[in-house]
């Protein structure tokens, strides 16, 4: 029984160490420089290559719903919640319950300010 609990504890610690931040995950999609004009003219894959640059240029937890829309345009995806803005980025070969591509999700607080960012499904890092 002790061996089981030791294994379970080790597994839990290992799982915690393997979780990568959104910023680390998204950088695996590319390193193209973000500009509003470049984003507006890019396809989904091109936008995926710009997300890392976007996240490094803008402290997203200080941005509002309106500022995200000004920078990224109208959302291209949805998770069915009013407190989020969602954008499909990256290759369409990736599939989740929300559609084709990675879904970049900005979660908003009650005041409309970004409180967190996530990507679904998680980007595989090799």
Report what the structure shows.
The protein is an alpha+beta fold and 126 residues long. The chain has one domain. It contains 5 helices and 5 strands.
Give a short overview.
This protein is α+β, with helices and mostly antiparallel strands and 126 residues long.
Which SSEs are present, and which pair or pack?
Blueprint lengths: L1 H17 L3 H6 L8 H6 L2 H14 L7 H8 L11 E6 L5 E2 L2 E2 L1 E7 L5 E7 L6
Antiparallel strand pairs: 1-4, 2-3, 4-5
The helical percent reads 40-55%
The number of helical segments is 5
Structural class: alpha+beta
Q: Please outline the major beta sheet.
A: 3 strands, antiparallel
SSE series: HHHHHEEEEE
Radius of gyration: 17 Å
Strand order of the largest sheet: 1-4-5
Total strand count, please? Answer: 5
What distance separates the N and C termini?
A: 35 Å
Mean pLDDT metric: 85
Indicate the proportion of strand residues: 15-25%
Low-confidence region ranges: 3-18
Apparent shape: globular
Give the total of domains: 1
Descriptors:
single chain, 126 residues, alpha+beta, 3-stranded antiparallel sheet, two-stranded antiparallel ribbon, 5 strands, 19% strand
């Amino acid at each position: 029984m002790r061996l089981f609990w030791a294994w379970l504890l080790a597994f839990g610690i290992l799982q915690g160490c393997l979780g990568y931040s959104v910023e680390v995950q998204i950088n695996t999609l590319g390193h193209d420089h973000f500009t509003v004009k470049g984003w507006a003219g890019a396809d989904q894959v091109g936008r995926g290559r710009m997300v890392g640059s976007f996240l490094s240029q803008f402290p997203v937890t200080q941005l509002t719903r309106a500022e995200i829309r000004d920078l990224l345009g109208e959302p291209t995806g949805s998770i069915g919640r009013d407190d989020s803005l969602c954008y499909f980025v990256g290759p369409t070969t990736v599939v989740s319950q929300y559609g084709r591509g990675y879904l970049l999700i900005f979660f908003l607080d009650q005041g409309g300010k970004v409180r967190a960012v996530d990507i679904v499904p998680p980007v595989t890092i090799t």
